């Protein structure tokens, strides 16, 4: 059997970990189970990532990057500020509806990281990254439209993400499509009023 470099194996292991943990939960994500999911030796996981926490960090980063990429692709390049914010929020919500397992896994990993000293920095980095991307999208939308923000983009992003995270948790726990549509519209209106 041909040797596969760690650089090639890394994305394969991340995908195997995401597939396994999205199906069975973070508790099922042992290095042994992830190795079995991909059909490699457990030592391959340790060689590629060092620790299970490093693999979990990579999973969080990959899930986040995948979601951010989807939302960034939806960003209009010539719309008014308000229309851009609506489009971005709806695109992000669309990812929740289409990929609830990804959000559930991110939530589980976040809770796990709060109690795992080696992952607390990864969790903070994850949230800083999401905050920075959201603030960047808000700033860019305002700049393109010539809109002067009433609050710093980071404050608006933090407000939006707090509401969005709550709405996502409600969707995962007790879905109600009509109520969610109303709440999302209200959140968008509040963000626009704040901006």
From TrEMBL:
Span of domain HTH tetR-type: 7-67
Keywords: DNA-binding, Transcription, Transcription regulation
GO molecular function, one term: DNA-binding transcription factor activity
Gene3D superfamilies (UniProt xref): Homeodomain-like (1.10.10.60), Tetracycline Repressor, domain 2 (1.10.357.10)
Stored InterPro entries: Homeodomain-like_sf, HTH-type_TetR-like_transc_reg, HTH_TetR, Tet_transcr_reg_TetR-rel_C_sf, TetR_C_31
DNA-binding region range list: 30-49
SUPFAM superfamilies: Homeodomain-like, Tetracyclin repressor-like, C-terminal domain
UniProt protein name: TetR/AcrR family transcriptional regulator
Native organism: Streptomyces cyaneochromogenes
Lineage, highest ranks first: Bacteria, Bacillati, Actinomycetota, Actinomycetes, Kitasatosporales
